[in-house]
Amino acid sequence: MNTEFENIESSEKIEIPQNVKVEKMRYQKNSLSYMLGFAGIGFSIFAAFILLNSLTPDIYTIFKILLNIVILLFGFMCCENVKNYREKSAYMMLGIAGICVARIFFGPIMLFRYYSKYLTFMEDGILQTDENAIVSKWLGSSIIEKSGFLTPNGYVRAILAIIGLIGAAVCFTFAAIICIRKSKVLKKFLAENK
Questions:
Q1: In the chain, % of residues over pLDDT 90
Q2: How far is CA 126 from CA 35, 47, 53, 55, 116, in A?
Q3: pLDDT at residue 169 in the model
């Protein structure tokens, strides 16, 4: 069977159309957005574990856990959809990134505030009884009793949580931007080549 490519000599160049990359997008998955989305989920889980371990369990803990479950479920769903160049899911990822940024101003800031009060109230290494009730209402036993797998320093924990939440927001944002850009290119190509 004689084809056009068999007749080309080895010294001749084969011209590859400019839209081959876009054509390949029809069959290849958007793995970069997919992996960035899962990295965002990982960073979010990291920050959640640090914050849940550092603060005292209360009624807000239920809200924090439910919020993390929602982020995990929607994050996973968005990761699966951006893999197939779905633009709506990319916008949902931008929303998740916004939630991660908003979370910085709740848990880590509370940890900064109450740990500084804890250090101020400490006198000769023993917390006074009146202040003990205030501080122990917010700080977890892993900080006050200096137990757990992390340093009991609340500032370090808050900074790690902020780094995790910023990492999650950045990963979700870049995953969404890449998906939006690629899906628009693919839509334009498909509209031109019906």
A1: 43
A2: 47, 29, 22, 20, 15
A3: 97
